[in-house]
Write a structure and sequence with these properties.
CATH architecture: Alpha-Beta Barrel
Order of helices and strands: EHHHEHEHEEEHEHEHEHHEHHHH
Distance between the termini: 26 Å
CATH topology: TIM Barrel
CATH class: Alpha Beta
Number of domains: 1
Radius of gyration: 19 Å
Number of helices: 14
CATH superfamily: Metal-dependent hydrolases
Shape: globular
Structural class: alpha/beta
Length: 351
């Protein structure tokens, strides 16, 4: 919590990208690109506390789940984290973010850790996968990726695909899920940016008005299109994963990211998210809370920030914030922390 504001990091991952988990020879280049993005561009410049070596960055998974637990709840102002599985099985053997990591944290802290399960329509047993995720793993949403790499071929994953996707959305609804999240805006090789557009969201939102469609990485690209979706469809939300990190070193860029989204008037459907552990959440929680939009831009008032930081996501999932605060105050971390642990302390201590 920051200044008594409830904080939800709406997307964290397992980050299982060590060399032995990679499928494609170029996957290492993707990892190096993300390392440069996080370490050299977005984290506090000159602050060695947030600097990891390339090897530490690549081998984070060796420290899970302790790393996730410490990073989110001992080292930051985040109160609740939402772990999203990622179905990048064409690049990483376990998809890059296995939900088993989050389940171990959730066993200890069920009031702090929640999970979206990953699904690819191009993998055998996708419908059964949804059943398993709900019945066996207790997920609160599904996570799709815009494409899958199967036998060397890029295959699209579009929410408006009535043959491949609509049956999966229908199964999710039948199992009681209400939220479908999909990665957008940020491309990963070998795909190009056109594979990550948002023109499939509207048809899905119209076809399933009782479901919510969460656009992950909102703010990075297609912002005017995303803003239009927010204006036209009450069941479309925006997960800012990674975008708030620009508030620290690139405030003008962040203002441009946020302007169309805020101008849409959908202040109650935008979620704060860092993408931890690639990003350490703490400096970006602080930067977002301090951020002020330039003169002439749509306002980002303290009340709107409060909603984006946690209240909006809680409302999407019908959480009782007061009850969650009380539960958090009673655990070993508590909402009132006298002193935060050292950033990436589990990695630095070697356990």
């Amino acid at each position: 919590m920051i200044e008594d504001v409830f904080v939800v990091d709406a997307t964290i991952h397992g980050w299982s990208v060590m060399p032995e988990n990679r499928v494609q020879p170029y996957t290492g280049s993707v990892v190096k690109l993300l390392y440069f993005w996080a370490t050299e561009q977005l984290h506090p410049r000159g602050d060695l506390a947030y600097q990891l070596t390339p090897d530490q960055f690549e081998r984070m998974a060796e420290y899970h789940p302790q790393l996730i637990e410490s990073l989110m709840f001992a080292e930051s102002d985040v109160d609740v984290a939402v772990y999203q599985g990622v179905p990048l099985y064409g690049l990483f053997r376990d998809g890059s973010s296995p939900i088993s990591i989050a389940e171990k944290v959730r066993e200890k802290l069920p009031h702090r850790m929640f999970i979206y399960g990953d699904v690819s329509p191009w993998r055998a047993g996708a419908l059964q996968r949804i059943d398993e995720l709900v019945d066996g793993h207790g997920v609160i949403g599904l996570k799709f990726y815009p494409l899958d790499l199967v036998e060397g071929e890029l295959r699209p994953v579009r929410l408006d695909d009535e043959k491949k996707l609509f049956p999966l959305i229908e199964r999710a609804r039948a199992k009681g899920l209400k939220v479908i999240a999909i990665h957008k805006a940020i491309p990963l090789p070998p795909a190009t940016i056109d594979r990550f557009d948002v023109d499939d969201i509207g048809p899905a939102a119209r076809a399933f008005p009782d479901m919510t469609f969460e656009i992950v990485h909102g703010g990075f690209a297609f912002n005017r299109e995303v803003a239009g979706l927010l204006e036209r469809h009450q069941n479309v939300t925006v997960n800012l994963e990674g975008a708030p990190c620009y508030a620290l070193n690139y405030p003008a860029r962040f203002a441009d990211m946020m302007a169309p989204l805020l101008a849409s008037g959908a202040h109650d459907r935008i979620f704060f998210s860092t993408g931890a552990p690639v990003m350490h959440p703490q400096p970006f929680v602080e930067a977002f809370w301090r951020f002020e939009m330039p003169k002439g831009y749509p306002p980002l008032t303290p009340e709107i920030k409060k909603r984006i930081l946690g209240e909006n996501f809680a409302r999407q999932h019908h959480w009782d914030i007061d009850s969650m605060k009380q539960a958090c105050r009673g655990d070993q971390y508590g909402l009132q922390r006298p002193q935060k642990a050292v950033p990436y302390s589990v990695i630095r201590n070697g356990h």
